[in-house]
Structures are given as C-alpha cells and as structure tokens.
C-alpha cells in the first residue's frame, strides 16, 4: 500500500494503470487497496472526463513521510522491511 | 566527585536510550512489525537501568550506599535482558515466554559474577556482526552510525572488564565515556532520520 502512495506522490496524481505498473500489483489487489486507502482518507478519487485519477490527501502525505522515517530507522538498525 | 560525572554520563545515555525506545515504539504502532517492539523493549529496559544507576551515582553517599548497590544490580540485570532481547530481534524470531525464562535462568546463574560484561560482549558481538553484514550489503551511512555505536558499546564492556582486574578509575571512566559516545551516536542517527 505504501508503494501505491509513493507512486501517486511521485506523479502528483496518478491513473490506476500507472499505479498498477508502478506498484507492481494485480488488478484485483489494486482495486482492493485503492478502496481501503480511500476509505481511510489517505487518497481521493477525482473523476476527469474519460478517466479517474487518485491524489494524496494530507493524511496520506503524512503517512508516507512517517513511513520514510521508519524505513530509514529500520535501515540504520539493519532491519529489512 | 568523579562518580557524580559518571552518573551524569549514565543518566544521559539512559535518556537517549529511552528516546530510541520511543521512536521504535512509534514504528511498531505504525507498521505493527514485532522487531520494532523488541527494539523498543530492549532500549526501554537498557534506558531505565542506566537511568537508575546514573541517578544513584549522582546522589551517592554513605547513607545511600544500599540504593546504589541495588541500582547497580538492577542495571546489570537490565543490561543483559536488553541485550538478549536485541539478539532475539536480530534472529528475527518472535519473543516467546520460553526465551525469556531461559534468559532469566541464565541471569540467576551469572548475575553475581563479574563475568556479566563477558556475556554482554558476547551478545553485543552477535548484534554488531548482524549490523556489520547489513552494512556490507547496503553501505548506508545510518547503518554505519549504528554499527559504530554498538561497537563502542562492546568496547565499553571491554574497558569495564579491564577495570575489574586493574584497579584504576581510568578504565572505569573510559568505559562510561565510550558508552556515552555510543548513545550520542544513536542520538545523531535519530536526528538524521528526522
């Protein structure tokens, strides 16, 4: 799920296809995770003309930052996430 | 008078250990990985032990001698328990009650022996070796800082052993200062993490 947040963050806003390839997920898993992230208020869905895009919310951005700190901390102690 | 400064060094190291423990706890609550819980427990026990010994050294007098002796004993137990937990974390196993019982049993055998430092060196060497392997793979600066910190902690126990056999305050002071440097490095790591 963090990979999904990272892909969206890197692109600013991302279409499901981009997230699918960026996070290396199956279609079913992607759908499940996107719904979960949306329910938890970490991402928002925006309907464009012919497609949808996802954007990070401030809560999602905060979580991504927090996870980055955890990753660095774990790396320092030689813990692989 | 020197003991008050050593106590202050101990107290500072203890506070830093508690900060590391708090950060590990935050990591555990965020991603629910038990290895962080073990890290948190290890530094919590270590920090409380050092804090108590530091405080008892600061207030040390003839009247409080029994408190000092108790705190030194508690710190020795806490130190070994924390290193055992740390070693368990690095074997990536879940801490079972059986592991803890074995740890406590071993402590009952060894705690009254000055060989406590030797056990600490053995456990820390295991941790240093594990971090060293990660460092060899990844070459990250943060891992290097933690590697040096744990290496210094091992060194502090070596100086402590020398202090047992050569009755000189020099080695005791060196042991405390190496320990303090080790925890300052951990603090630097935390600051770099953010």
Layout of helices and strands, plus pairs?
The complex is a heterodimer of chains A (81) and B (194).
Chain A: H1 2-11, E1 13-14, H2 16-22, H3 27-39, E2 43-47, E3 52-56, H4 58-76
Antiparallel strand pairs in A: 1-3, 2-3
Helix pairs in contact in A: 1-2, 1-4
Chain B: H1 2-31, H2 34-58, H3 65-90, H4 97-110, H5 116-138, H6 141-165, H7 169-193
Overview of this structure, please?
The complex is a heterodimer of chains A (81) and B (194). Chain A is α+β, with helices and mostly antiparallel strands and 81 residues long. In chain A, 60% of the residues lie in helices and 15% in strands. Chain A has 4 helices and 3 strands. In chain A, strands 1-3-2 form a 3-stranded antiparallel beta sheet. By secondary structure, chain B is mainly alpha-helical. Chain B has helices at residues 2-31, 34-58, 65-90, 97-110, 116-138, 141-165, 169-193. In chain B, helix 3 (65-90) packs parallel to helix 5. The longest helix of chain B is centred in the N-terminal third of the chain and has 30 residues, at 2-31. The radius of gyration of chain B is 16 Å and the shape is globular. Chain A binds chain B through residues 66-67, 69-70, 72-81, and chain B through 23-24, 26-27, 30-31, 33, 35-36, 39, 89-90, 130-131, 133-135, 138, 140, 142-143, 145-146, 189-190, 192-194.
